[in-house]
Amino acid sequence: MARPTPTALVVLLLTLVLLPPLAVTVSHVLLRVLRYLAFSAQSVAASSSTSPDALHYLLAQVLTIALLAPAFGIPLPGGEWALELLDGAGFDVKVADGAAVGRDAAAVPPIAPAREPAVSSAEGEDGHGAEEEIEVDDETPDEKRKRELLATVAQHKANLLAILDRPVSEHEHEDGTWQLVADVDNGEGKPRVKVFKNRNAEWNFKLFAEMTTPLNPSFDYALDVRNRTEFDKEMTESGRVVEELDRYTRIDYFRTKAMFPTSARDAVVLAHNAILPPRDSSSSHSRYLQLTLSCTHPSLPPQKGIVRMQLGMGGGIMEVIGDGTGARKTRLIALADLNPGGSVPGFLAKFIASQAVPASYVALDAIIASRVARYTAPDSKLTLDTPEGSVLLSHKGFTAIETVFDPDAPIPKKKIKVRSKTNGDVSKGKIRGIANGGPSVSGDAHPTHATSFGSIPHSPSAVDAPEGLAKYVADTRAAIEYAMPFLTVAGVAGVWAAVGVGVKLLLKKPRR
Questions:
Q1: H or E element: which one contains 366?
Q2: What is the pLDDT of residues 49-108, one digit of tens each?
Q3: Distant-in-sequence, close-in-space partners of 284: CB < 8 Å, separation ≥ 6
Q4: Which terminal Cβ of the chain has fewer Cβ within 10 Å, N or C?
Q5: Does the keyword Membrane apply (predicted)?
């Protein structure tokens, strides 16, 4: 047997050393190409003028690249391959504010240190936010962190009140900054929802909702992060209270589910509740405020594979309103400024504002209405519309309080007509059974899942798409996942077989 020449040994060594990183590099290129094609398909789907043939052609490209990828040595197991393929790893995109945001770049910048002595936002017993100077000498890092968060609350609370604490008529007749994108009026005895979108920002919304439920149940249920998994089951993976900063301020965490083709998302939210004085001296109706904005927490760093959402200053004011019959309902005026992070198609903003948000409030109203009895029970210390009878506002500890809503109580099933005016057009549909996290819109509207205000639906392929697209995408994903274990083995084996043939040719003794 001929002995290998030094040149052949060097070539073999370089092949063994360089092949793995080369395969990974090729893999990353393929991932980016496939991701681009996938979102091209979504863009095509969003256009009603596109023929099904064009859409099928794009999806065929996606499937072809996915099936051929193992031939280039992608070192990924079949079970997670399809999910990792489109999750945005290392893929930067431009968001509405013009800043490049990648998965690892979505962390909230640290809060600037407050001046000393600082102003605390610790609430007085009346909940009006009494200010006081506090000493900061010899404070621990944890005490400093809490002080800075509370100082941030005080600053943003004033700004939010300046924006929201005005009559509804003033909001609706502002300049051309806000565009009405949804006006849902279901008739007498049903919630009314209006949604406005900022013309200059893709994910900036204002909402007005008149709910049929009393103030305290509406405030306590909708703003308790732990309830998100009940009324938003389709989208919310988990929700919990992380830390109490004071009687009215806490840090919440929630995580959304990953739905093809986007990643799971999460958010760490600084939430502050407050009791506001009546709108005028002639009114005795209660008014509550919740302020929300993103923050960081030592125990919750960004996680690999989960996109960290950022919430700018947002929140809402809830107040009692009368309908002329003696019944007291609830009005909500809310502001949401969101950066979903990662890669989310822009047309989703329109879908969320015109469909998902109104539908979620119809669902929420029905769920709360079915659980009001807890407040009116003879042995209950709760009330329908006074601060001392609210779960979130009357107790001295939040995390120790069990939710007053029975998680086993059945969610009512109703048929509710929805008429949503969007830019002058009226789309009609029906909200069928309010179960499993929200209604599905049928009729002329496209089928989708309802989600809570501020959360992001993760199934853009099923939005504004030709009929059957959702099933087509699901079948494509299933085919990829089924084939990947076999093709990965075959592809890697093929690469190493090619290396073996090359080495054999190098060792072959040349003919004389």
A1: helix 357-369
A2: 444 444 454 555 555 555 554 554 443 333 333 333 333 333 333 333 333 333 333 333
A3: 278
A4: C
A5: yes
Which residue carries 């565009």 as its tokens? Answer: 179
Q: Which two tokens stand for residue 220?
A: 């306590």
Give the long-range contacts of residues 439-444, CB within 8 A, separation 24 or more.
439/359, 439/362, 439/363, 441/355, 441/359
Other residues' Cβ atoms within 10 Å of the Cβ of residue 282: 6
Distance in angstroms (rounded) separating the CA atoms of residues 452 and 368: 14
* Token pair listed for 500: 């073996």
Q: Are residues 270 and 411 in the same domain?
A: yes
Q: 33 and 62: one domain?
A: yes
Same domain as 179, residue 266: yes
Do 129 and 87 sit in the same domain of this protein? no
Spatial separation of the C-alpha atoms in residues 391 and 401, rounded to whole Å: 8
Q: Indicate the number of domains in the chain.
A: 2
Report which secondary-structure segment, H or E, holds 429: strand 425-431
The reply to whether 355 and 312 lie within a common domain is yes
Euclidean distance between CA atoms 182 and 355, whole angstroms: 8
204 or 495: whose pLDDT is higher?
A: 204
DSSP character string of 255-314: EEPP-TTS-EEEEEEEEEEEEEPPSSTT----EEEEEEEE---TT----TTEEE-EE-SE
Query: Which tens digit of pLDDT belongs to each residue from 148-167?
Result: 998 888 888 888 888 888 87
**Measured distance CA(236)–CA(239) in Å, rounded:** 8
- Collapsed DSSP state (helix, strand, coil) of residue 339: strand
DSSP for 327-373, please give it.
-EEEEEEEEEEEE--S---THHHHHIIIIIHHHHHHHHHHHHHTTTH
Q: What is the pTM of this model?
A: 0.54
Please name the helix (run of DSSP H) or strand (run of DSSP E) that holds residue 417, with its range, or none. strand 416-422
